[in-house]
């Protein structure tokens, strides 16, 4: 049973649709990479999946016992967010608030979950450090731990390696793939088509034409042949 089903979705803003007649499914354990050129609607789709924007038409439905508030999200960071004056533990714990159950203080279960996910991301020794003092790669690990406190089922990642150096980029991709191998469904926006093909198992390519299918089918398609050849020449 699909965790996420998109049927004939049109999305955009009051001045018009950016994408129309979009349909695809995401099953538990999938690794879907959303690619396409700037302005193709990748971030708008992500905001719509998160419920931050209402679709203009069509349907988004959740299955496999997934609720809307059980989606972990790692956004692109702004300079203001990178300078957030809180400890690593406080940032990670804030992910526990996404479960919809309000309580004024974090309970033992919240704290245990945060500690487990910090250990999972290899950042336990950073738990008392200020988030603003960390490197870009360390901050992304903190935000992944925060997203995992919100859910163990599905993560939406918006350009998770943006601004990272090549070594840290590879480490981040490997970490995301490890989470996927452990059963976490991944939906990732990426500008790096070569990396998307290397790590994901399904591709959604947005543009004037839309492709959705397996990585192997994407490689054989006109989309894959054109854009992968284009990246090799860069």
What's the short story on this structure?
With 234 residues, the chain is α/β, with parallel strands linked by helices. It is built from 9 helices and 9 strands. The protein has helices at residues 42-49, 79-82, 88-93, 108-120, 136-150, 166-181, 193-199, 215-220, 222-232, and strands at 2-13, 16-27, 31-36, 57-62, 71-74, 154-158, 185-189, 202-206, 211-214.
Q: What is the name of the CATH superfamily of the largest domain?
A: P-loop containing nucleotide triphosphate hydrolases
What is the annotated CATH architecture of the largest domain? Answer: 3-Layer(aba) Sandwich
Order of helices and strands: EEEHEEHHHHEHEHEEHH
* CATH classification, class level of the largest domain: Alpha Beta
* Poorly predicted ranges: none
Tell me the domain tally: 2
Structural class: alpha/beta
> How confident is the prediction overall: mean pLDDT?
88
Could you please say which CATH topology of the largest domain applies here? Rossmann fold
Strand arrangement within the widest β-sheet reads 5-6-7-3-8-9
Note the total helix count: 9
What portion of residues is helical? 25-40%
Strand content: 25-35%
Shape, principal axes of CA atoms: globular
How many β-strand runs? 9
Major β-sheet annotation: 6 strands, mixed
- Rounded to an integer in angstroms, the radius of gyration calculated over CA atoms is 18 Å
What is the first-to-last residue Cα distance? Answer: 40 Å
């Amino acid at each position: 049973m699909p965790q996420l089903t998109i049927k004939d979705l049109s999305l955009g803003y009051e001045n018009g649709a950016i994408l129309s007649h979009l349909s695809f499914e995401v099953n538990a354990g999938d690794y879907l990479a959303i690619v396409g050129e700037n302005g193709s609607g990748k971030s708008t789709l992500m905001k719509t999946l998160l419920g931050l924007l209402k679709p203009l038409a069509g349907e988004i439905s959740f299955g496999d016992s997934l609720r809307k508030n059980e989606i972990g999200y790692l956004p692109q960071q702004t300079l203001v967010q990178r300078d957030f004056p809180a400890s690593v533990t406080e940032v990670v714990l804030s992910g526990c608030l996404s479960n919809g159950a309000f309580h004024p203080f974090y309970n033992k279960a919240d704290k245990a979950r945060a500690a487990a996910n910090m250990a999972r991301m290899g950042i336990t020794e950073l738990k008392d450090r200020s988030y603003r003092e960390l490197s870009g790669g360390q901050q992304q690990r903190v935000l992944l731990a925060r997203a995992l406190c919100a859910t163990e089922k599905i993560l939406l990642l918006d350009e998770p390696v943006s601004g990272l150096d090549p070594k840290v980029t590879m480490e981040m991709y490997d970490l995301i793939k490890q989470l996927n191998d452990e059963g976490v469904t991944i939906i990732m926006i990426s500008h790096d088509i070569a990396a998307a093909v290397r790590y994901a198992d399904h591709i959604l390519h947005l543009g004037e034409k839309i492709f959705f299918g397996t990585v192997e089918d994407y490689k054989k398609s006109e989309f894959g042949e054109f854009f992968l050849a284009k990246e090799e020449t860069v």
